[in-house]
# Entry
Amino acid sequence: MPAAQLKALLPRELLASVVVFLVALPLCMGIAIASGMPPAKGLITGIIGGLVVGWCAGSPLQVSGPAAGLVVLVFEIVRQHGLAMLGPIVLLAGLLQLLAGRFQLGCWFRVTAPSVVYGMLAGIGVLIVLSQLHVMLDGVPMPSGLNNLAGFPTALFQALPTLGAGIGWEAGLLGLSTIMVMWLWDKWRPKSLRFVPGALLGVGLATLASLALALQVKRVDVPENLADAIDWLRFSDLLNLADPNLLIAAFALAFIASAETLLSAAAVDRMHNGQRSDFDQELVSQGVGNMLCGLVGALPMTGVIVRSSANVQAGATTRLSAMFHGLWLLAFVLLLSSVLQSIPVASLAGVLVYTGIKLVDIKAFRALGRYGRIPMLTYAATALAIIFTDLLTGVLIGFALTLLNLAWKGSRLKITLVHRPEHGELELRLTGAATFLKVPALTRILSSVPAGSTVHVPLNNLRYIDHSCLEYLQEWGRANAANGSTLVMDARGVKRRLEGRLRTTAGLGSPKAKQST
# Structure
């Protein structure tokens, strides 16, 4: 980039990077806490996402870092396999992303049905809310969403001063005040202050109130030296990846992180008129970032829409903004860690509760209704399965419903036998896809054809016809020729629709004329 151009762009990029930094700071720590990890782990991921991924990203204006969409999966990995195995799993997931990008598979990660993605985010949002309600009361979340829901009344009872003689109500008020500030700021934010993020404002005010009132609440635990938060990957841990359960976790992490990243990149492209995203390069950069996160034992990352949209709205036009935001995170952690240590954990939980509520996108659910009831059912089934079972099972159920819907639509065939007295013949109208599944229906319809009839079969409304249906029609024509019946098909239509290839089928004549069989 020429020096003159860089000088002209630098002020705008610096301002945008500060805005993104202010949005990212509370989210990095809050997502780490919600994932069952120390806050510093989320900050390390944000730093890598800015400095490394921002530099080589295929989507220049997208910002990468720890994502709410991975909270449930990371929490389950840590709970089931231990904190030490998170690094190897994230490293392997990053390697899979890098290979997917190198083999130009980026477009395939975007074929995920929107109903599955929105349902996944909604289910994750509900689980985040249920777990962080306990953290808002300075409590500890339970392993599953149902346990968190069932245990919340008891946790609330124990937090109330007049009933449970607890002090969790103070933390609860800080969390509620953070949510209220974020909601009011989103609703009535002045245009002149649109660059100020509601999360930072809510956390800042809650922190000041807790210090002024000397509240005895849990506060963020950040080490004075960032190096103390790094857990370097051990070679012996890599050997454990031979465990099939760990391989499945790595594949699930790679797929979900890639799908969320590329959907976010596509959304960012719609926000500006600059350089379009290179999805394969974005996968490569995400893979590099996650491999580094795995190497130092940090949280996994994705491209995140909240920070990315703040980046675009703040006026960023190059990747410099994302890179500078990582630099500000690093500088803040190194120079002002004492400020982070004064932040109430309950306030960060409030940020996550507000974020989780917004993940349950009712507008997206209603919009799916334009495409029929099946996408809405897939959305609801995916979300509920994630809430009642686990993330991977819910996503697989969503995919299964999508495939069943495609199979059902692909096998639909409307069969109508129409009398054409003006031509003295019958017309067998076929609309949709004629597969072997519809041979019994064809048999029932053709059994009602009177002897000596001419049956015309136009194929212009067929998307596809397989060998079973075609051979049955030909066989019917030959079997009923003795009683004077004739079956007429368009040879050109058969050639166009039979498995997408031009071929001459026995019994069919020249493609320039209609032939009876």
Summary: Confidence is low (pLDDT under 50) at residues 499-517. DSSP finds 22 helices and eight strands in the chain.
